[in-house]
Amino acid sequence: LKSLGQQWVVELYDCSPHQLDDIDFIRETMLAAAHKMGATVVEEVFHHFSPYGISGVVIIAESHLAIHIWKEYGYIALDVFTCGDGISPEVGFEVIKKAVDAKSSKVVKTLRGIKSELGIDESQPHKPE
Amino acid sequence: LKSLGQQWVVELYDCSPHQLDDIDFIRETMLAAAHKMGATVVEEVFHHFSPYGISGVVIIAESHLAIHIWKEYGYIALDVFTCGDGISPEVGFEVIKKAVDAKSSKVVKTLRGIKSELGIDESQPHKPE
């Protein structure tokens, strides 16, 4: 990997409205996504706004998942940020997109902590034969 | 505004190392940033990793601020996501960048929930004179 982490900045459109105001469902979905990714959950916090709207974050040892829901527009702003080998935002994205039945989505993928910019040199010297 | 929100995905480089493992300092800095932005804090959670490393999130009524710190590289991954008029990620970014004494930074700005994509029409009809 050429960066410490990778982040998917996700827009989910036309989500199933009856699930977008159920904070327990959203929490369980976010935790399920973290577990399916193979992440280690360290903290989680969810908040329900009046009359509706949910914001929540799952901090994982490998960074975080964050969600903000606008039920009135069937719209979800989702971030999935992971670090390290063997864990990918894509797995979490797929779990959440399916759970909320998003009809379409847009993903912007960014690298976080590009190693060459941090002075990290992981090039492996070749051993002489 | 043409979107529900805006998010700054921020890389902070060459930060002052003696502040990067102080969870109380980081929490206070993040809360100060939220307050300076004029945001309403609804939840906050911070976690210290062993031997070092801090992850934390402040959920605001207007979305969130999230931070992940790699002390060993003097590097911080910061997200500042705000919604609505009269509140800008830039203010929070500036508070945090100054507090950790980052020598350089990189910001990727994204719009979240573009209104035309959500079918929101805010055009004001002109009144006949």
Low-confidence stretches of chain A: none
Let me know the average pLDDT of chain A: 94
> What is the CA-CA span between the terminal residues of chain A?
26 Å
Strands of the biggest beta sheet of chain A: in what spatial order?
2-3-4-5-1-6
Tell me about the largest β-sheet of chain A: 6 strands, antiparallel
N-to-C SSE string of chain A, H for helix and E for strand: EHEEEEHE
Helix content of chain A: 10-25%
Radius of gyration of chain A: 17 Å
Shape, per Cα inertia axes of chain A: elongated
How many strands in all of chain A? 6
Secondary-structure content class of chain A: alpha+beta
Number of helices of chain A: 2
Strand content of chain A: 35-45%
Oligomeric form of this entry? homodimer
Q: Biggest interface pair, residues each?
A: A-B, 35 and 36 residues
Q: How is this structure best described in words?
A:
The structure is a homodimer of 129-residue chains. Chain A has 129 residues and is an alpha+beta fold. In chain A, 20% of the residues lie in helices and 42% in strands. Chain A has 2 helices and 6 strands. The first copy, chain A, has helices spanning 23-37, 89-99; strands at 3-13, 41-48, 54-60, 63-70, 75-83, 104-114. In chain A, strands 2-3-4-5-1-6 form a 6-stranded antiparallel β-sheet, with helices on one face. In chain A, a hairpin with a 2-residue loop joins β3 (54-60) and β4 (63-70). In chain A, α1 runs antiparallel to α2. The A-B interface holds A 4-5, 7, 9, 11, 13, 42-43, 45, 47, 49, 55-57, 59, 61, 63-64, 66, 68, 70, 73, 75, 77, 79, 81, 83, 108, 110, 112-113, 117-120 and B 4-5, 7, 9, 11, 13, 42-45, 47, 49, 55-57, 59, 61, 63-64, 66, 68, 70, 73, 75, 77, 79, 81, 83, 108, 110, 112-113, 117-120.
